[in-house]
Hints:
- Helices cover 57% and strands 0% of the residues.
- The chain is mostly helical.
- It has 3 domains: 1-39, no CATH class; 46-72; 75-153, no CATH class.
- The radius of gyration is 31 Å and the shape is elongated.
- Residues 144-153 have low confidence and may be disordered.
Amino acid sequence: MRDTWPSPGGDWLKTHRAELNSMSTPIFLEWLDFKFADQPRKVVPPNEVLADRLAADVRDALRKRITAEILLEAGFDRLIDEAMKKRAGILVERAQTIRAEVTRGIGDEPSSHWSAPVGRVAKEIADSMGDDRCEIRPGQIPTAAPCTTGRRS
């Protein structure tokens, strides 16, 4: 192999031109392996880049931890559950028509995934003020059945 193609960095490369595609794939790969044999397997960036990344990763970890603490103290999950209860009626109603809305949505935008129209409906429901006609327990999946739990008279 070394007799066929000179090692990189030699004087031969200064005066000769070699087309890489003139080598067969096995010879090219062998030459490439030879060329990089003395190089480390992974590139390790300079210390400044490593230190910047370390600081950014520490900041990100702190942001996640502190955010979780704040949300827990503020009763975030309880607020979400309350907001879901307010939207229980509309959620049940829209669950009954979601297939038609998805069919219409992907018909209007054939390249869209079926989840895109579902996401749009979900945003509409989330943005609404909700309605107190019935309740959905946390984690409960709405059904097409009429809502009777918590219905106002």
